[in-house]
Amino acid sequence: MRALRFCFLTTFYPPYHFGGDAIGIQRLARGLVREGHHVTVIHDVDAFLALAPSPANVDTVDDGVETVRLRSRFGTLSALLTQQTGHPVVHGRRIREVLDAGRFDVVNFHNVSLIGGPGLLSYGSTAIRLYMAHEHWLVCPTHVLWRHGRELCSGRQCLRCTLHYRRPPQLWRYTGLLRRQLEEVDTFIAMSEFSRDKHHEFDFPKPMEVLPYFLPDADGDTAEGMAGPPQERPYFLFVGRLERIKGLDEVIDVFRDYHDADLLILGDGEYSAPLRQRAQGLPNVRFLGRVPVEELSRYYRHAVALIVPSVCFETFGIILIEAFRQGTPVIARRLGPFPEIVARAGGGELFDTADELVGAMRRLQGDPDHRNRLAQAGADAFQDHWSERMVVPQYLDIVRRTAERTGRQAIADSLSMVEVQ
Questions:
Q1: Residues 6+ apart with CB under 8 A from 135
Q2: What is the pLDDT of residue 168?
Q3: Fewest Cβ atoms closer than 10 Å to its Cβ: which of 14, 233, 385, 399?
């Protein structure tokens, strides 16, 4: 197998990022490097700084991934021009220079909303072009299908919804630009079967492969992870950004009457203050803020379960597989991709109502054998479905099949020996 040259284009990439999708992109880049391929990531620092309160700390870890950080004297205006026109107005020339010089075999578009919009999809025409839908941006101006900031989207009210989010309307969405540019992409990839189906429900016109997120094989049992529990009292765990769409309000209310365990909340975000106010007077609800990555496994391992109460349509749910890898069962809302993941793993329970959530909590805390069976099933499923050694070959197989379909036989032949498990 000869080494291939990959270029990833994405708005956000560590350390200039906000959420799990950028970490997922980084894990894929590093996984390909470990397979012997070359990966260049082009990402937009202007867009990050337009949204972040302060610059990120620069990550100095040498992981073998080449990064090209786009930054200009136009700052926020650069991101606004892209958002409004659907084209990489400021950084287009620089992106073309990198793509022309790199002679890439594969160009993979990720979250392109502010690095170039749909106009970016015609770049890199000599390479295989993939698009990974980490969010629902292809069918939703706000990315999340959470209409008017209060309800699941069941039908388009895009202009009103965008104004509710205090974002400028994207006039290009009312032209044929996106549909024309979709023709430039060889293969589209959704992160779950649910997300693929949701794209098609909202009239996305192209077929989509499904490729889940994964976690690296190497960083499992750290010294911190093998340490004792962070507290003596039993606890349930929440991990993630503190946003209204994450559904923590209902979980906090449950702990007003559930006194047998604590709720530990790991994370921070714009909805932190309302949640802390809601939890006032509840000693069994603890906000721990952002916890260093190397300490997370310790919290996962000793939790009764991870609670995943999101009220919006996620595209996947990385925290579920993080829990499974640590041998922790999950209790997830019966919504979006969570039923798909829990069913595949056999590693948790689902709920719709507060009463069902409490029932699941009592079963897992009151029956250690039941809890341990779910934990083991989740751990086994992680190895079979969401580990790096399983998912990276699936990604390369998508590249191979795309190469065969589009007549890039040399690329297909170079990947013919990749073993997909």
A1: 21, 111, 143, 144, 315
A2: 86
A3: 233
Rounded distance between C-alpha atoms, residue 374 and residue 139, angstroms: 36
DSSP string of 224-271, one letter each residue: TTTS--SSSS-EEEEES---GGG-HHHHHHHTTT--SSEEEEE---TT
Here the tokens at position 170 are 């994207």
Q: What is the pLDDT of residue 220?
A: 46
Predicted pLDDT of residue 92: 96
Query: How many Cα atoms occupy the beta-carbon half-sphere of 20 within 13 Å?
Result: 21
Give 122: exposed, middle or buried? Use CB within 10 Å, 0-12, 13-18, 19+. middle
Tokens for 206?
């192209």
One-letter amino acid of 28: L
Reported as type and span, the H/E element at residue 6 is strand 5-10
Q: Which residue bears the tokens 């400028």?
A: 168
- Return d(Cα 379, Cα 326) in angstroms, integer: 7
Cα angle: 36, vertex 213, 223; to 5 degrees? 80
Cα gap 416→372, rounded to integer Å: 40
pLDDT of residue 57: 60
Cα 192 to chain centroid, rounded? 11
Q: Tell me how far CA of residue 180 lies from CA of 76, 138, 211, in angstroms.
A: 27, 13, 25
Gyration radius from the chain CA atoms: 22
Query: Which structure tokens are listed for 307?
Result: 């609670």
Domains of the chain: 5-216+388-414 (3.40.50.2000), 235-386 (3.40.50.2000)
**Residue ranges in the chain whose pLDDT is less than 70:** 1, 53-60, 218-226, 418-419, 421
Neighbour tally for 403: CB within 10 Å? 24
| Alpha carbon distances (Å) from 69 to 11, 131, 147, 302 | 10, 20, 33, 39
Determine the distance from the C-alpha atom of residue 371 to the mean position of all C-alpha atoms in its chain, rounded to a whole number.
Answer: 27
Structure tokens at 31: 């996984």
Could you tell me if 130 and 402 are in contact, meaning their C-beta atoms sit under 8 angstroms apart? yes
Give pLDDT, residue 163: 83
Peptide bond into 15 cis (omega under 30): yes
Number of other CB atoms surrounding residue 302 within 10 Å: 19
